[in-house]
Amino acid sequence: MQKISFNEDRSAVWLAFLFIALALCLPLGMGNLLGWVLGVKVWTDPLNALAPLSKSFSQIPGWISLIATLAFIALLLLWERRRFPENKKAFFTALLIVLTLTMIGWVLGHAGIVAAVPNEREKLGLKWSMGLTGEAGYLAALFIGLIIGNFFTSFAKFLSQAARTEWFIKTASVLVGAGVGLKGLEQANLAGTVFFRGLAAIVEAYLIYWALVYLMARKVFGFSREWAAPLASGISICGVSAAIATGAAIRARPVVPIMVSSLVVVFSVVELLVLPFLAHAIIPEEPMVAAAWMGLAVKTDGAAIASGAITEALYMAQGGFQKGWMLMTTTTVKIFIDLFIGVWCFILACVWVYGIDRKPGEKVSLKEVWDRFPKFVIGYFIAFALFITLGICFPEKIKELKESTTNLDAFRKFFFALAFFSIGLSADFKRLWQEGLGKLILVYVVCLFGFVIWIGLGISWLFFHGIMPPTGVTP
Amino acid sequence: MNNPQETEKLVDELHNQPYEPMVAAEIWLVSISLFTGISILIVLAFVLKN
């Protein structure tokens, strides 16, 4: 396995906390310092794709927000690399190109024909779309990286100095903690049944699915630990973030979780297009069971929430139920699962450091444990705890805290996209997909359709059987 | 930059994963997860139904 640079790990944590500090100026009453960051929307007209994320900056044209976002990230990354003995001018030029090409991929991935999910088509005036959600931006960034890596090798060599996959992955992973902390707090006041279903979803995803998928990948398909752990997280938990964070926690080579994540994004489309209709066909009298099932079975947040919306539309057409209950159930289940990515990465990092990477008879000192332990996992925890504590202590500031996490989420997504671009640049991904994907797909299909969705359906039935959303006009 | 040797290694790995027997830590992780998971689900279902 690749040795991870300690500095890169530590630098990612500092960088993420710099973003967090700037974002927290909003609830502290010091202004929305990150509200100008670019938000990319699913588009049919490219002129409408770009706009500042915050409404208070809506007077700024999208292209200014775009330039400001790229320049801000470039300067921060350059500042973080200030002590490294490289050619600063060349590094900065390469970095700007990497950022720009990744952004092009990210925006192209939001094209309506690629990203729009079925319930968005009407609004966008589309008859058909691939339904990949905005996460198609990751695949588009990967694709651009691939083209450069395979056809423009000297240019790729120049860019590789700024394409620091692990740096990007770990920075984004710390930022995940902030958003998840606040979302968890928002769900804490839900109705008892939904709350219990959320708790059950955590247990299912982490303790049952993960263990079963890991066991299948290791024993039946013969995958090594480095492949089996990110694969288990990608299939069981929540796709991209989980697979990438797990890969980093067990010190897998970055290409491993990125391959798993790209598979998860593609497969979530199949789930999105099939599961809501399957649920409606086999359990037409159980809308809440179906909604909870979507949150558990459909990977990636975007696809899960879209399938919740489709499920709600299907059931509302027959039952006259109030709008929002089914979607809320799907979202709650999904968010509860997301909440524990950091805890799970912490557990896996401990198991790997103490139980797997340690040689027989070797005594690992506390200092070594600290050196080997991925610091971004600690960063994730601090971010998670910080936002949940602020939400509890200052409930009147929830709106501002939420806006802060929305700003951070824009950076988180872009840093993940940078990681996909960097992997495309460094690996012959086309060959890997052609020759290596078959076995990964087989594990995915066997686990997902073999037991993940059926256990999910069974337990959703157990918790929601007979419970109906309120009927009548939505208040 | 594209590294053909690394790609070859990865492709080979995907076709013929190196034999890596499960060690005690992995077996414990999987066993404890499954046992705890099933137990908690039974308790949660019991609490909810009562």
What's the structural blueprint in terms of helices and strands?
The complex is a heterodimer of chains A (475) and B (50).
Chain A: H1 6-24, E1 38-40, E2 50-52, H2 62-80, H3 88-108, H4 112-115, H5 121-124, H6 136-151, H7 153-160, H8 165-187, H9 192-220, H10 225-236, H11 240-249, H12 255-282, H13 287-297, H14 301-319, H15 325-339, H16 341-356, H17 366-372, H18 375-393, H19 398-426, H20 429-464
Antiparallel strand pairs in A: 1-2
Helix pairs in contact in A: 1-8, 1-18, 1-19, 2-3, 3-6, 3-19, 6-7, 6-19, 8-11, 8-15, 8-18, 8-19, 9-10, 9-15, 9-20, 10-11, 10-12, 11-12, 11-16, 12-13, 12-14, 13-14, 13-15, 13-20, 14-15, 16-18
Chain B: H1 4-15, H2 24-49
What does this structure look like?
- With 475 residues, chain A is an all-alpha fold.
- Chain A has 20 helices and two strands.
- Chain A has a two-stranded antiparallel sheet with strand order 1-2.
- The radius of gyration of chain A is 22 Å and the shape is globular.
- Chain A starts with 5 loop residues before the first helix and ends in an 11-residue tail after the last helix.
- Residues 1-6 of chain A have low confidence and may be disordered.
- Chain B is built from two helices and no strands.
- The longest helix of chain B has 26 residues, at 24-49.
- Chain B starts with a helix and ends with a helix.
- Chain B has helices spanning 4-15, 24-49.
- Chain B has 50 residues and is an all-alpha fold.
Summarize the structure in short:
The complex is a heterodimer of chains A (475) and B (50). Chain A has 20 helices and 2 strands.
